Amino acid sequence: MSKARETREKILKQAAELFNQRGYSGSSISDIMRVTGLQKGGIYNHFKSKDELALEAFEFASNCVSKRYMEALKGKRNAIARLQAIITVFHSFVTDPPIGGGCPLLNTAIESDDAHPALREKTQQAMNSWRSLISRIIDKGITRGEIRPTVEADAIATIFISTLEGAMMMSKLYGDSIHINRAVAHLTEYIEQNLKQPNR
Fold first, then answer.
1. How distant, in Å, are the alpha carbons of 33, 34, 56, 110, 115 from that of 29?
2. Measured between alpha carbons, how far is residue 161 from residues 130, 167, 199 in Å?
3. In angstroms, rounded to a whole number, what is the distance separating the alpha carbons of residues 84 and 78?
4. Comparing C-alpha atoms, which of 178, 43, 57, 183 is closest to residue 123?
5. I need a labelling partner for 31 at 20 to 30 A (CA). Which of 83, 88, 125, 200 fits?
6. In this structure, are residues 171 and 163 in contact, taking their beta carbons and an 8 Å threshold?
């Protein structure tokens, strides 16, 4: 990796953590200079503006999350095992987040709602990828007879994501992992009772 590429990656990683912890609006260019150890010119050599950096930093953070899911799904073909792996990975974010500050999807979705349309669009794209991943697993599971044919894939994706993200928000708010633990236990039971094809 070239020195310029290495510096750019370092800026992205540190800016991603800063934005994820303090928010885009709550992070100044001075804050970015502080965490990267670079002068303003050094940052703008790689990114045209704070907005461009924010978009690419979110993409960097989102990719860190996606890699965790892809690693967990390797070698798992059964749909039930794949859904359980997704829950396990998300649960691990409590003690071992892929990027400092918690789930970047949740944090950015809240902040970018009205104030930052470009960031909101990026967040929607990341959410669409997660929804699509869950839906594809369910659809394949139905085809293979592992999941009940009456299950609606996109509806389950909504339930999964809303339950996990909401529980993560509550655990962060209260500083208590009991909320995410309850959500994980509920979804694990829900998979067994409502999704899994009997006798499979």
1. 6, 9, 15, 21, 18
2. 8, 10, 27
3. 10
4. 57
5. 125
6. no
Class of domain 58-195: mainly alpha
- In 51-161 the beta strands, taken as DSSP E runs, fall at none
The CA distance from 145 to 156, in Å, is 17
Q: What is the largest CA-CA distance in the chain?
A: 63
Helix (H) or strand (E) holding 14: helix 3-22
Provide the 3-class DSSP secondary structure of residue 196. strand
pTM listed for this prediction? 0.89
Contacts 24+ apart (CB under 8 A), 38-44: 38/7, 38/11, 42/7, 43/11
Domain boundaries along the sequence of the chain: 58-195
First to last CA, the chain: 48
State pLDDT tens for residues 93-123: 988 888 888 889 888 888 876 778 888 999 9
Mean pLDDT of the region 149-163: 97
Q: How many residues appear in the chain?
A: 200
Residue at token pair 């892929």: 98
Backbone angles phi, psi at 129, to 5 degrees: -65, -40
- Per DSSP, the three-state class of 112 is helix
- Name the one residue in this structure whose structure tokens are 């930052």: 116
Instruction: Give me 38's structure tokens.
Output: 């670079």
